[in-house]
Design goal:
alpha+beta; Neurolysin, domain 3; 3 domains; five-stranded mixed sheet; two-stranded antiparallel ribbon; 20 helices; binds zinc ion
Length: 496
């Protein structure tokens, strides 16, 4: 069987719900024992909680060798072909490289600017990342592990987090029942933007798991249709994303409203438990919903400039800014209620969520920067010189790697963001958008997170404007000034 491991022994360390999920998967396949796959809801908990180091190694190596097994699914040649064709196209169009071609229509404008942005952050984050790594390594040493490997990282980070904060995902999950979180995000949209969500059943959908909503504004006018598809199923892609089935446009005096969807892969309810989200899944839902707001509140003439049709390094602002509400007591009060007794999440847990949000932020930042730098390495030079994907990747990662390299593993062959999705020469935009979202959220914090005036400015200058003006111009109209990196560095605890 491809991409899964079957365990017929005890599963020490794993939370009950995870074991139950693995058992259900085995039952579906009419097999004994427990099955773990490379789908995130299965893979991530295993890597985070399984005491069994060999099991973690086995699963991590399977995950890391996706598209790199020298079989008919191997992606190494495809990667080289993609970068080569991209380079050729750029040259035909008169650009120095694919990155030069792509970045011409980005907020960052030039590869040089992206590189200095990434390297500047690398300089600031690296000392913190090394400190983080050493802290995790210290803990691993207590178990006799002298050479911490990639498959130890999540496990000992979680242990360290528990030791420092006494806060585990499993402790928070009871407060984040999926239905409550959805209602919470709807309530927040209502408070900020006067949007009302009503579940409807009379329209067609592609699967019974999908939920459908009619969205109206304060005057009862139709704003959008909203689809939500939350659970993994066979054949469904990993991860979470927003998409639009129909855009928004104005024609002949009619404002034709959009059909927007978010797709996630959250843990399914079991026979004994509803779907309880990890805090990370909560922020994911807010993130995708932020994109959805960008789509739903679109109000422009041309469909190709509407909603999320903006420069790539601007598109993550509405999604990332909304994640900030997950850390605010005032917002959590609306939806973070215990699924059994309805108790609102206690203040000390909220404080811990806030404190732990920056936990090991140095390492996390370094990881994001490594992906951004790898992306730029592939796309800002003539790729002709690349002979081996693995060797090239290792070299491009250079300064950003803290763990020993795993020879049979490769990131590039499964780096779908840049080779399948639209993020080529654009991975840096996650960090770029963090600069924007941290700075933008400060505007809300200054006047209150549900302040209608600030929300209206955000809606009128950003959410509704799509790509009708240069992002920096839109941003300045909202904020009154250009964004500064200080808000991010401060929030991430990276300022000395
Ligand atoms: Zn996003």
């Amino acid at each position: 069987m491809v991409n899964c491991i079957v365990l017929n022994e005890e599963l020490p360390g794993l939370p009950e719900g995870v074991i139950e999920g693995a058992r259900m998967l085995a039952e579906e396949k009419k097999m004994d024992g427990w099955i773990f796959t490379l789908d995130y809801p299965s893979y991530i908990p295993f890597m985070t909680y399984a005491n069994n180091r060999q099991g973690r190694e086995k699963l991590a190596k399977a995950f890391g060798s996706r598209g790199m097994k020298n079989d008919k699914y191997d992606n190494q040649d495809i990667v080289l072909k993609i970068v080569s064709l991209r380079h050729k196209r750029a040259q035909l169009l008169g650009y120095q490289s694919h990155a030069h071609y792509v970045l011409e229509e980005r907020m960052a404008e030039k590869p040089e600017k992206v590189m200095s942005f990434l390297n500047n952050l690398l300089t600031k984050a690296k000392p913190a990342a090394i400190k983080d790594f050493n802290r995790v390594q210290e803990l691993a040493k207590e178990d006799g592990i002298e050479d911490m490997q990639k498959w130890d990282g999540a496990y000992y980070s979680e242990k360290l987090k528990k030791a420092v904060f006494d806060l585990e995902d499993e402790q928070l999950k009871p407060y984040f029942q999926l239905e409550n979180v959805i209602q919470g995000v709807f309530d927040i949209a209502e408070k900020l933007y006067d949007l009302h969500f009503e579940e409807i059943t009379e329209i067609d959908k592609y699967h019974t798991d999908v939920k459908t909503y009619k969205v109206t504004d304060g005057k009862g006018e139709f704003v959008a249709l909203f689809y939500a598809d939350f659970f993994p199923r066979k054949g469904k892609r990993n991860g979470a994303w927003m998409t639009s089935y129909k855009g928004q446009w104005k024609k002949d005096g009619v404002n034709s409203r959009p059909h927007i969807s978010i797709v996630c892969n959250f843990t399914k309810p079991t026979s004994t438990k509803p779907s309880l989200l990890t805090f990370n899944e909560v922020t994911t839902l807010f993130h995708e919903f932020g994109h959805a707001l960008h789509g739903m509140l679109a109000n422009t003439t041309y469909p190709n400039l509407s909603g999320t049709n903006v420069y790539w390094d601007f598109v993550e602002l509405p999604s990332q800014v909304l994640e900030n509400w997950c850390y605010e007591k005032e917002a959590l009060n609306l939806f973070a209620k215990h699924y059994q007794n309805g108790e609102i999440i206690p203040m000390d847990l909220v404080q811990k969520i806030k404190d732990s949000a920056n936990f090991l932020e140095g390492m996390t930042t370094l990881r994001q920067l490594s992906f951004g730098l790898l992306d730029m390495a592939y796309h800002s030079k003539d790729p002709d010189a690349i002979k081996s994907v693995k060797v090239f990747e290792k070299d491009a990662f250079g300064e950003t790697q803290l763990y020993p390299d795993v020879e049979e593993n490769c990131m590039s062959t499964a780096f779908s963001h840049i080779f399948q999705g639209g993020y080529s020469s654009g991975y840096y935009s996650y960090k770029w958008a963090e600069v924007l979202d941290a700075d933008a959220f400060e505007a809300f914090k200054e006047k209150g997170i549900f302040n209608k005036e600030v929300a209206a400015k955000f809606k009128n200058n950003i959410l509704s404007q799509g790509g009708t003006q240069k992002p920096m111009e839109l941003y300045k109209k909202f904020r009154g000034k250009e964004p500064s990196v200080d808000a991010l560095l401060k929030r991430a605890g990276l300022l000395e």
